[in-house]
């Protein structure tokens, strides 16, 4: 079993180092991760400058690009053969609900999925995370089961783990993505020369956080597992959009041509 391990916190982050140590007991692991914190990079690619990769003391590849760059570069050029699985994490802080849109951790897993591999994202809930060993152990528990009982390769498995000792984990729950409040988190400020600047403040509290959501599971002390489908097509909107096309003047405009 060959695993490409990446993250968005950087190759030096405690989460990826902890997960590497534990994953290495069950698989051949290659780490390809950003050279600095790239949290919030989402699925961005580096298009306007070259990407450099350096080998670190631990044998990790430190890359000057985004998490998506790392997975793309790792699978095609840095590994001696393609991986069986792409794992991203352990992220410092949860990736719940809307976070999936912005998370570089989930983006790395999505890129793995896009390239045809089983893909897993792992995050540790909390503001001052401590129990990385818990998240690593949970991740390996789940990955071992995935090796024995693989999913379809068009799925990303998003795992969030409470920041508690392993013995205090209450179990695992299958969840859906919740939602955060659509609050204004921008903090206006001024630079030393008095010019206006803006900071993106703390994440807003959850809005859709009821039973069945990833927010609820984590709050209750459970590991949350959310399968994410990368196909963004809104199939349940087909009838509505079809009616819109038929009842508007769009067809007439093109029929006149």
Could you explain how this protein is built, in words?
It is a single chain. This protein is α/β, with parallel strands linked by helices and 257 residues long. It has one domain: 3-Layer(aba) Sandwich (Stationary-phase Survival Protein Sure Homolog, Chain: A), CATH 3.40.1210.10. The protein has helices spanning 14-23, 67-78, 99-102, 104-114, 132-148, 214-219, 238-247, 250-255, and strands at residues 2-6, 28-34, 53-55, 61-63, 85-92, 118-124, 155-161, 172-174, 179-180, 186-190, 196-200, 206-208, 223-229. Strands 3-4-2-1-5-6-7-13-8 form a 9-stranded mixed beta sheet. β6, α5 and β7 (155-161) form a beta-alpha-beta unit. α2 (67-78) runs parallel beside α4. The N and C termini lie far apart (58 Å). The mean pLDDT is 92.
